[in-house]
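Section 3.1: Structural characterization of target chains.
Under the original work plan, the team committed to producing a structural model for every single-chain target entering the pipeline before any wet-lab resources were allocated. The record below documents one such target. The sequence was received from the expression subgroup and is listed exactly as submitted; it comprises 323 residues.
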Amino acid sequence: MIAGERRFFAYDTLCRIRLEAETREKADALLDQGQKLALEVEATLSMYDPASELSRLCAGYVPGRDYPISPMLADFLALNLMFCRRTKGAFDPTVGPLIRLWDFLAADPRVPSQEEIAEARKRVGYEHIHLDATRSSVRLDVPGIVLDPGASGKGYALGLVASLLQREGIQNAVIDFGGNLYLIGGRQDSEGGGEADNPWRIALIDPEDTDTYIGTVSMRDMGIATSSWYEHSFRKDGRIYHHLLDPFTGEPKPLTLQSVSILSSNGAYTDFLSTAFFMLGLEAGTKLVEELVRESGEFISYVAVTEAHEVITSGNVEFTPKK
């Protein structure tokens, strides 16, 4: 088998695809296709690129009128709306006005006033999105909606690239989009070799001390994504404000969980579900995972860290605590 690797910049992070194929030609061709697909997703979904399809939709739609969109954007919005309905709006991509208001990436972020939050919330609510996936069109019924793909865009790309490689018969690959991982087959050694029954062991960051970890999970033929308050946050007047905003209040979700890692055979589910689970909390998040396992047939498991730093796992995950 021939090992190949491709590194490129997308989603404001370094991305990597590594795979094994029967020939150099096949390896190079699939690396080309995988990179092209990942960049196509970014060109479709980026909210920071005014030329992206999503940005053009948000800037150019007329409330109440159908707006033509690509099949990729229609598929992405359909997945978002599925999770919106499943969580009764706790997961909601229309939080874009709130994300821009809080601006967690600013050099000196500030806490918005209640009046500013209330004004932004007038443009939040997934019920304002009316998708016709069969016609590849969408209708937004109020002005000023900003769709934020930050909770799901990398996972969506991860799932598409993983599916591409699996359809092409690849049995050993690593797809790493800035920490969103999908692993096909077993662990590869330094020469690119690996055994199908030799699982990867992935360390999960400790949300209370990001220089260490809480334990490891064993994985093969699945992806993983983590949502946690520590990814983007700031402290003001002794209080921590994090980027996981509650659509119903416009403010950071009160912490009952510190982090949630989702493992799934469906790469897109990892990103969507880690955010949805975090917003729902342990009990409702567990219920959502169990429902999706029954209905989709996908493998899904989780590792959650509570506010009290207790690690809770689903029964089907191979988790080894740090000694």
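The chain has a mean pLDDT of 94.
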